[in-house]
């Protein structure tokens, strides 16, 4: 019998290895009060490592349908998508073609948003 944690560890290791082979790595800075870059281009169905770094003085949150869409495979995800200043998180995912908006849901951060364009 294969243990679920072992399977998860193997899948995560494979995803990390794929990303380390130069597939797709994107760094997004959450700043007061914008994301940089605010438009991200990814290739469809190829593992992507998305690292969000809070470079601001305020807490920020990374939220959007990319993280909840059933068609998107989250290969590795953090425990929380809310970031305190100076903290970062990494999500490894594979997504089908589409447009995926993202935003900060912290009160008072209206307009802090961007778009991930996944192209075939």
Account of the 3D structure:
This protein is mainly beta and 120 residues long. The chain has one domain: Immunoglobulin-like (Sandwich). It has a five-stranded mixed β-sheet with strand order 2-1-4-8-6, covered by helices on one side. Strands 3-10-9 form a three-stranded mixed β-sheet, with no helix packed on it. The longest helix is centred in the N-terminal third of the chain and has 17 residues. The protein is globular.
Q: Which regions are unreliable across 5 or more consecutive residues at pLDDT < 50?
A: 1-21
Please, how many domains? 1
Distance between the termini: 37 Å
- Outline: globular
User: What helical percentage do the residues reach?
Assistant: 10-25%
CATH superfamily: Cupredoxins -  blue copper proteins
Sequence of strands across the biggest β-sheet? 2-1-4-8-6
In CATH, the architecture is: Sandwich
Per CATH, the class reads: Mainly Beta
What are the secondary-structure elements, in order, as H or E?
HEEEEEEEEEE
Proportion of residues in β-strands: 35-45%
CATH topology type: Immunoglobulin-like
Q: Number of helical runs?
A: 1
Task: Please state the structural category.
Answer: mainly beta
Number of strands: 10
Based on CA atoms alone, the radius of gyration comes out at 15 Å
Q: Mind describing the biggest β-sheet?
A: 5 strands, mixed
